[in-house]
């Protein structure tokens, strides 16, 4: 069935934009955040190895009324440069990681404003700056994993008296771009790094996570990981080598299938109402929508070419879709542009 994507709104984020996360919780599913990361005068990208980056950023909170097609920016929070954000799986709490190596928690109030609740500096085992690059929550929401620019992974508990780091280990030789819990087994954590490795860890060990597997299938750094609630033993990866790959986690020597989308794949976001449909941020190309088929092949459904710069952040709107219309937000870097669009599929 052919699909088309239509832009409904564009917004100038002023600072370079790199992260979008839509709130999954009622009654706040009309809200989403866009994170920004301001560059220095040298114009280096988010993924640059340089230490000379401007550290300021912002969290922009948006409210979208789909019935009236009205988009409003309702809050702007000054922060260190944001690299990733995730909503807690059970509560209306936003977690962010930034260029100062901190994790921050923001509670969403009843009047739809983000209020900072807690911060934690992730451990730095060596000299020099350390950026916190990605964060993911376990299925139960009792712990989070954070990856960093020195190749480390930190496990964090979210207790009533605040966040605590329970362990940190070196998972990769270079930047650990991404980490993700297995959504059907919270004891398993996947990590991807600039050393082209995809690693699988068992985090039940008290002292340090146990490495179960190193996969060297990717042709460049592993930048995105996706485990689905409804598909046990399935892992989707994205890489700088432009490909999305599908793995059976019971046998990961090679992938089941792959598709080249072009541009390097930075983020993978499943459609909440149709998890097999995935929104992909293809950095130097566009945003693409793909589907995982019953025969475990991957097909390209639609492409969104509204952005003229590095495509980093994207996410789908939660809640009921209106007919066959599915809303999503996307953002790009140097043109500091955030878009709200709708995907429609013909019957």
Brief summary of the model shown:
The chain has 347 residues and is mainly β.
Structure explained in plain terms:
The structure is a single chain. The strands form seven sheets. A four-stranded antiparallel beta sheet has the order 1-28-27-26, with no helix packed on it. The chain is an all-beta fold and 347 residues long. The protein is globular, with a radius of gyration of 19 Å. It is 0% helix and 57% strand. The model has no long low-confidence stretch (mean pLDDT 93). Strand 4 (56-65) and strand 5 form a beta hairpin. It has no helices and 28 strands. It comes from Aedes albopictus. This is methylated diphthine methylhydrolase. Its EC number is 3.1.1.97.
Give the end-to-end Cα distance, rounded to a whole number of Å.
6 Å
Question: Which spans of ≥5 residues are poorly predicted at pLDDT below 50?
Answer: none
Q: From the alpha-carbon coordinates, what is the Rg to the nearest angstrom?
A: 19 Å
Side by side, the strands of the main sheet go 1-28-27-26
Q: Average pLDDT across residues?
A: 93
Q: What portion of residues belong to β-strands?
A: over 45%
Helix content: under 10%
Helix-strand topology string: EEEEEEEEEEEEEEEEEEEEEEEEEEEE
How would you characterize the largest beta sheet?
A: 4 strands, antiparallel
| Number of helical regions | 0
From the spread of the alpha carbons, the general shape counts as: globular
Structural class: mainly beta
Map the helices and strands.
Layout lengths: L2 E10 L4 E6 L8 E6 L19 E10 L4 E11 L1 E6 L5 E6 L3 E7 L5 E8 L10 E6 L5 E6 L3 E8 L2 E9 L7 E5 L2 E8 L5 E5 L7 E6 L6 E6 L6 E6 L3 E6 L8 E4 L4 E7 L2 E9 L3 E7 L5 E7 L6 E6 L8 E8 L4 E9 L2
Antiparallel strand pairs: 1-28, 2-3, 3-4, 4-5, 6-7, 7-8, 8-9, 10-11, 11-12, 12-13, 14-15, 15-16, 16-17, 18-19, 19-20, 20-21, 22-23, 23-24, 24-25, 26-27, 27-28
